[in-house]
Amino acid sequence: MVSANAGKTQEEIEKELEKQKQYIPLSYGEYEEALSNGKLVGLKCLSCGKITCHPMPVCQWCSSRDMERVELSGEGELLTFTVIRVAPEGFDAPYIPCLVKTKEGPNIIGRLELEPEQASQELIGKRVKMSGTYTYKGDKFSGGAHVCPVFKIIEP
Questions:
Q1: Contact 150, 133 (CB under 8 A)
Q2: Which 3 state secondary structure label does DSSP give 2?
Q3: pLDDT of residue 44
Q4: Of 64, 67, 120, 130, which residue is least crowded by CB atoms under 10 Å?
Q5: For residues 54 and 77, what is the distance between their CA atoms, to the nearest angstrom?
Q6: CB atoms < 10 A from the CB of 154, how many?
Q7: Is 42 within 8 Å of 72 (Cβ atoms)?
């Protein structure tokens, strides 16, 4: 198999890489840094107007590369959750991973700020708001520590 860069000069390769960077308005590192600063960010497609979150090189709805970074409210609706009592390597149990449909549209995976004993199916559909972040150390397969949003129930 021949490399796509075969026969190119270092300068040509660097120009091509620089061009590719222009298509990524939000890297995963920048996404996690924003989370660490209390901000939930996503990408708004300038072609279809929909929002994608987590960072992707193209719009998840129409595959356009024409996107811009936007800050999301951090508010949404709890779609589902589960209580993890036996954690995989790199995680501390118990914890509650959850799926939240944000007010702006995309679904976000995070953690629910709640004692596991309080978790019941009546929470599904409740309004939530991002209350902070959690950094998990990860394991030998996950590439190290990562940051995820933490949500709390804001309606009784």
A1: yes
A2: coil
A3: 95
A4: 120
A5: 17
A6: 12
A7: yes
Q: Which CATH class is domain 74-156?
A: mainly beta
**Both structure tokens of 62:** 């129409």
Report how far apart the first and last C-alpha atoms of the chain are (Å, whole number): 60
Structure-token pair, residue 19: 């061009």
Model pTM score: 0.80
**Can you give the pLDDT at residue 91?**
81
Q: What is the pLDDT of residues 71-94, one digit of tens each?
A: 999 999 999 999 999 988 778 899
State the virtual CA torsion across 123, 93, 132, 129 in degrees, nearest 10. -10
- Tokens representing 80? 């589902």
Please tell me the predicted confidence (pLDDT) of residue 5. Answer: 64
In the three-class reduction of DSSP (H, G, I as helix; E, B as strand; rest coil), residue 85 is classed as: coil
Spatial CB neighbours of 121, under 8 Å, sequence gap ≥ 6: none
- What is the residue extent of each domain of the chain? 9-72, 74-156
49's tokens: 């107007």
Token match 């990562």: residue? 146
